[in-house]
Task: inverse folding
């Protein structure tokens, strides 16, 4: 075997090793990323699977025990924003579909967590309750500025910070 | 002021377009007058963008809340320094700031090359101005930073509190410097491809810019990690978030380039590969900007919702098509002068290093884009989290650090068995020693033992290099040890500066390994006077105090720290803050940092009635070495880039070298 093919073979081996690493890691660490509508449309299918769910914290649903750091709340679909074009798939929910999901979490309350905020939770659903091991709030750099809400046209007041 | 600013960006856009046209015509027709016109347009672009940036700053400092940007990102109580930082706190300002940095670099390039690189320069100017025109077009047509509101708000809605932190004032600018400066090597690459002057010139000019950009990318990433560590309060510093990944990928390809360019200089190999890395690095910075501004990755999560995404994508595609097209067209001119001779050679080590860096970059790309890819292919979004990145990258990083111990020492071309033995006896032995020590100290965790012995091996390799070089100078020149050492570094700044960078990287590596494997974590509610023991510390909660100021309400917990044996180690003061505008709570971490470990204390919550405080405490071993490693890295890079005025002598010596002396610069 000449040198060139030796090097070629070696490179192929490395590439194959990396590909295998990526493949197995994906198998073991991936989670379905769903919006609450998508979840609600097929809730029973997702029982026991690793999920990453995006939704909105339902008003008056938050139960927070500051001593044990136990948090429970309900999550609902994020309503489409007015005037913002979104490429989200339209999901038609049957009228009796479960639209809210109960979420349990233990840990420090993220600074941005509040009722009516959009959150992402990661965990598994069992018996209709999501046991979340991660709770993310919308990136802290994005929030609605409160100038003078009555007078500002809505398209002006959607500043989005970026850290990059 | 808004009118002047607006006028400046519109004119800036027009002259940039003109500069592109004139430079291309000048380059094609070899016409001095067209080229000069393009150059002058470049200067005008630089001047106008500077004026526009000055205008926005002036508006921020004047606190003119009638301007939408000022009202959205500052307030009358915002401290002066953060008012300055508000320039890049929002999207519009950050785009302008980006263009501003580009225009400064453009000015530097035009000045440095007023007599040099005359054939390349029209194409360099055209490329830089194309990028500049693209960014300005976003500001002119889509998102105007000088937009006025129809009314004057009493008060601005202020900069996001999480951004009001000293790291945040230096993290984005250093990343921007790193990102934007990748444009210059790219521009020279385009120039070299178009003109067919693919020799040493463009590499020499590009080298220092690449180092410069690498330096700021490194610091930017580290500052970002420091910011996350100090501000976000979850005990970690890196979460493999798309925004972080976006900044990490160009760093990886840029690191690969800095290594493989050595092979091109010394051996005339890997020319196509190097060209590709330059193109890739630039593309990844644009891609990163796209990622962070389009919301494509977390479309529900939506970091930022703006319609800018597609434009970045079109620009990126156009640049890729042009540059890859040029590269393919020039393939015949990029043939290697030499071939790889042996697997046991420095060339092979460099090649492997490059493969690994690009693999990591690909892994990060794949993991970041995975939801998008699976949605295309399978119609469902599937995400991978930090465990994915850690699992794949940990072995690759180990391999890279291992190579770090081999690359600098192994012989060029072909290493013999006896030379291998000689080269690696010391460093291999030292690595094993460190491994044994680590088993003794931490009880034999497999991964840490492996990682620490590899780190020891890499460190010893650098040590051996310095030691040998110094001894040779002492013997041959009869110099004293310190003189020998400083002259050794001074005479081969890039090489020994690079080794110092290696030392910094090993420190960062050790900090990452130790803090991820041996972290201790505890969460507990404490009544006033109650104690919490953790990993050799005892914390005593002594109550809270009110430390508010007009800008922010602050609830500060007083926590006394003792060692196991009862010795007092001082106080930590974790805080809960409540910003009044916009109303937002933030958690302020308190850290007691030593070289051995950080004690990281968070006040998770507080009950006003009972005075009960709930604390989250981490002990992060060796994490300080990450930041120290960062400074060592900065020092090493500084040594590499230092002799800018010595360029002329360097050119002279290169000519001398070309006459046949070994190019390695090795004293032996």
Result:
């Amino acid at each position: 075997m000449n040198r060139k093919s030796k090097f070629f073979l070696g490179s192929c081996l490395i590439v194959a090793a990396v590909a295998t690493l990526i493949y197995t890691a994906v198998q073991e660490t991936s989670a379905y990323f769903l919006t609450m509508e998508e979840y609600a449309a097929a809730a029973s299918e997702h029982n026991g699977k690793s999920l990453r769910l995006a939704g909105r914290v339902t008003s008056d649903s938050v139960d927070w025990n500051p001593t044990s750091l136990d948090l429970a709340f309900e999550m609902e679909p994020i309503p489409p924003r007015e005037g913002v074009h979104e490429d989200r798939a339209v999901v038609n929910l049957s009228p009796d579909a479960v639209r809210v999901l109960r979420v349990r979490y233990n840990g420090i309350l993220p600074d941005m967590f509040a009722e009516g905020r959009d959150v992402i939770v990661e965990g598994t659903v069992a018996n209709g309750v999501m046991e979340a091991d991660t709770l993310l709030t919308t990136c802290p750099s994005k929030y609605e500025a409160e100038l003078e809400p009555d007078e500002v046209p809505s398209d002006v007041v959607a500043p989005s910070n970026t850290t990059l | 002021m808004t009118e002047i600013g607006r006028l400046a960006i519109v004119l800036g856009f027009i002259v940039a377009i003109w500069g592109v046209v004139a430079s291309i015509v000048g380059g094609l027709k070899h016409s001095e007058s067209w080229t000069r016109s393009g150059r002058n347009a470049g200067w005008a672009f630089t001047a106008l963008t500077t004026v526009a940036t000055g205008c926005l700053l002036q508006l921020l400092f004047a606190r003119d809340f009638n301007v939408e940007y000022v009202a959205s990102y500052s307030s009358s109580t915002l401290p002066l320094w953060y008012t300055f930082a508000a320039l890049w706190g929002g999207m519009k300002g950050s785009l302008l700031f980006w263009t501003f940095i580009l225009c400064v670099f453009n000015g530097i390039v035009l000045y440095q090359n007023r007599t040099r690189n005359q054939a390349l320069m029209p194409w360099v100017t055209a490329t830089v101005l194309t990028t500049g025109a693209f960014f300005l077009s976003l500001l002119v047509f889509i998102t105007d930073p000088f937009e006025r509101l129809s009314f004057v708000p009493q008060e601005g809605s202020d900069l996001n509190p999480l951004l009001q932190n000293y790291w945040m004032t230096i993290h984005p600018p250093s990343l921007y410097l790193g990102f934007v400066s990748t444009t210059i090597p790219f521009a020279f690459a385009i120039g070299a491809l178009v003109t067919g002057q693919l020799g040493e010139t463009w590499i020499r000019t590009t080298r220092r810019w690449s180092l410069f950009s690498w330096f700021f990318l490194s610091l930017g990433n580290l500052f970002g990690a420091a910011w996350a560590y100090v501000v976000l309060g979850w005990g970690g510093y890196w979460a493999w978030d798309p925004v972080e990944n976006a900044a990490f990928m160009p760093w990886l390809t840029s690191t690969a380039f800095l290594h493989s360019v050595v092979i091109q200089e010394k051996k005339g190999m890997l020319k196509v590969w190097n060209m590709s890395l330059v193109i890739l690095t630039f593309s990844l910075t644009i891609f990163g900007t796209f990622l962070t501004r389009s919301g494509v990755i977390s479309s529900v999560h939506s970091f930022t919702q703006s319609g800018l995404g597609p434009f970045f994508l079109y620009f990126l595609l156009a640049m890729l098509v042009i540059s890859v097209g040029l590269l393919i067209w020039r393939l015949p001119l990029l043939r290697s002068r030499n071939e790889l001779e042996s697997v046991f050679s420095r060339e092979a080590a460099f090649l492997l290093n490059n493969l690994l860096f690009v693999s990591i970059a690909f892994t990060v790309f794949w993991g970041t884009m995975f939801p998008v890819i699976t949605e295309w292919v399978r119609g469902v979004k599937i995400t991978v989290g930090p465990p994915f990145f850690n699992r794949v990258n940990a072995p690759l990083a180990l391999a890279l650090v291992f190579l770090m111990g081999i690359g600098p020492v192994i012989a060029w071309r072909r290493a013999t068995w006896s030379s291998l033995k000689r080269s690696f006896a010391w460093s291999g032995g030292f690595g094993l020693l460190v491994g044994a020590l680590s088993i003794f100290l931490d009880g034999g965790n497999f991964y840490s033992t492996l990682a620490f012995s590899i780190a020891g091996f890499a460190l010893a390799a650098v040590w051996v290099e310095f030691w040998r070089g110094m001894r040779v100078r002492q013997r041959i020149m009869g110099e004293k040890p310190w003189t020998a050492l400083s002259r050794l570094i001074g005479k081969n700044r890039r090489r020994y500066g690079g080794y110092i960078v290696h030392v910094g990287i090993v420190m960062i590596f050790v900090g990452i390994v130790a803090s991820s494997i041996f972290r201790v974590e505890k969460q507990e509610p404490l009544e006033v006077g109650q104690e919490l023991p953790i990993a050799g510390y005892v914390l005593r909660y002594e109550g809270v105090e009110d430390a508010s100021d007009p800008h922010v309400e602050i609830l500060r917990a007083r926590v006394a720290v003792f060692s196991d044996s009862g010795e007092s180690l001082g106080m930590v003061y974790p805080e809960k803050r409540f910003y009044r505008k916009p109303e937002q709570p933030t958690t302020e971490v308190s850290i007691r940092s030593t070289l051995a470990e950080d004690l990281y204390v968070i006040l998770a919550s507080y009950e006003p009635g009972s005075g009960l405080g709930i604390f989250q405490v981490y002990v992060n071993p060796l994490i300080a070495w990450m930041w120290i490693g960062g400074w060592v890295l900065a020092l090493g890079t500084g040594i590499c880039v230092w002799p800018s005025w010595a360029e002329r002598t360097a050119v002279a010596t290169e000519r001398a070298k070309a006459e046949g002396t070994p190019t390695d610069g090795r004293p032996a």
